[in-house]
Amino acid sequence: MGGSAWVTLATNDSYSLGALVLAHSLKQTGTVHQLAVLVTPGVTSAMREKLSSVFNLVQEVNILDSRDEANLRLLKRPELGITFTKLHCWRLTQFDKCVFLDADTLVLKNSDELFEREELSAAPDVGWPDCFNSGVFVYRPSLETYDKLIQFALEKGSFDGGDQGLLNLFFSDWAHKDISKHLPFIYNLCSTACYSYLPAFKQFGANAKIIHFIGAQKPWLQYFNTETKKVQPSGESSHLQEVLQLWWNIFCSLIHPHLSPAMQGQSQH
Ligand code: UDP
Ligand code: MN
To answer: Which of 30, 67, 103, 196 is most buried when burial is the number of CB atoms within 10 A of its CB?
Structure first.
């Protein structure tokens, strides 16, 4: 294959809906890069088929793979399961450079320039800005780095039980060493910023290139009125009406019509 790819991850059919919308958003912004998704056995074959209609690569990864000794040892640390799964992205060595995107992100504007950045480039986390948020990061696939990350996970673990705590410990000089590895916040605009710093969101929100729906309120869990075709976010998500609508517009026009009735049930709330 060669070249460069956007990479995401889905361990079940719900997150796969996010991955599908994300892939279409990338295509709509005219990216020249390839699209890859890591899936685990929890993703149904019907959903994999949908994924392969828009992703160039649907790569199965398995956190329970008994042939992998490091995996088995990790199993004794169940909170690291999902961490391990994301780490698989370093194994996509058919690509030279990749940008990982969480399945709950949406690309609003072409962001291909991210591929000019070096590993590990990421945007600050809203909760602790000396940590990077691991929902969007630029990296270079490498089996050597993958092995080091697994070894590190076994020895040091993750301070938050997730991939972000692990990656921040591993790439520990991110906060102070090289400002070019600090992505502007507009490449990972965390949805909580919309209410935690509303004036800044009003001032700069229009510049957002990638929005990240962090937390439990995922776009596919919002109430959607099938008559009016409008999403009706509740409470804290109400500031996100506009961007959530963009997510649902893609979902309604490009994804929902092609899902089987059983799969359509995944997204009805
Ligand atoms: N993920 C997944 N299945 C899960 C949980 C997470 O596939 O059950 C993947 C998915 O790509 C997701 C990413 O891991 O976007 C990180 O999780 P999440 O986005 O829920 O964390 P947050 O951004 O809310 O901290
Ligand atoms: Mn996320």
So the answer is: 103
